[in-house]
Amino acid sequence: xxxxxxxxxxxxxxxxxxxxxxxxxxxxxxxxxxxxxxxxxxxxxxxxxxxxxxxxxxxxxxxxxxxxxxxxxxxxxxxxxxxxxxxxxxxxxxxxxxxxxxxxxxxxxxxxxxxxxxxxxxxxxxxxxxxxxxxxxxxxxxxxxxxxxxxxxxxxxxxxxxxxxxxxxxxxxxxxxxxxxxxxxxxxxxxxxxxxxxxxxxxxxxxxxxxxxxxxxxxxxxxxxxxxxxxxxxxxxxxxxxxxxxxxxxxxxxxxxxxxxxxxxxxxxxxxxxxxxxxxxxxxxxxxxxxxxxxxxxxxxxxxxxxxxxxxxxxxxxxxxxxxxxxxxxxxxxxxxxxxxxxxxxxxxx
Length: 350
Hints:
The chain has 2 domains: about 10-110 and about 305-345, 3-Layer(aba) Sandwich (Rossmann fold); about 115-295, 3-Layer(aba) Sandwich (Rossmann fold). It is an alpha/beta fold. The radius of gyration is 22 Å and the shape is elongated. It contains 13 helices and 12 strands. Helix content is about 35%, strand content about 15%.
């Protein structure tokens, strides 16, 4: 197959009317051969018909933003016979059943790395908020109860050990920043060799060793069947007493009840959380009531720069796939030959 498209019929790209950086629509429009359809997330028949006729679907990666019926499940795929490819609007792909897509001959891409700088920065925003007790200090100042600086005394992170779980695009940036803060970096990633982990700036260790050695445990792995519930009560008990737990990964990897219990017992000293089982979490959540929890509304990757890069990456990969060019972030490479055959059936000559 040549990378250059000789001819291409008009193909339809669909997305829901959820917020996305304008560069997505602009990039699709510049191609000149694609028909972009923006469908109501709260719609019914109109949205169903639009997706049924779509050849490409850009879908938000946030499961709590996309109504369940418009998430890419086996049921949705059964009603979308024209669908050739799906692009997840983030590094995660919680809204896409990749295995079901593979069975249906649908290529799936994500935008891993596009917002990596933003998420890595959020990791340290949460961590520094915890050790410097920023929320407590601000609350005391606003309430007029700030009297003694020593009563709000924090800690340094220099010289501590940070354990990175998942040293991919985000994790490797966290490792680089950590070195600048004078942290020792260790990492666990079952998808990489020890040599690859070392090349990314960390000493490779097992998951259990990381829990036992790290003063700061920071999650940067995807949510999947293997990682769901990975940080449970048993894992938290293996952590150092007075260690800190930080997650900018996905809710569901850590057990929120077990984390709350570990904080209440004093076994760990604090948690920085950008991700939740339910987003947003209930305001009366026990974790949100604690001064030793720094909390954010899954905004680590939600920066102007990060959202622009994600939208640009999604549009570019859709253009590549519909032209028969293999995309940069293909999650199911085994589907590619079948995808090309299906693309040819739709009249695309490559």
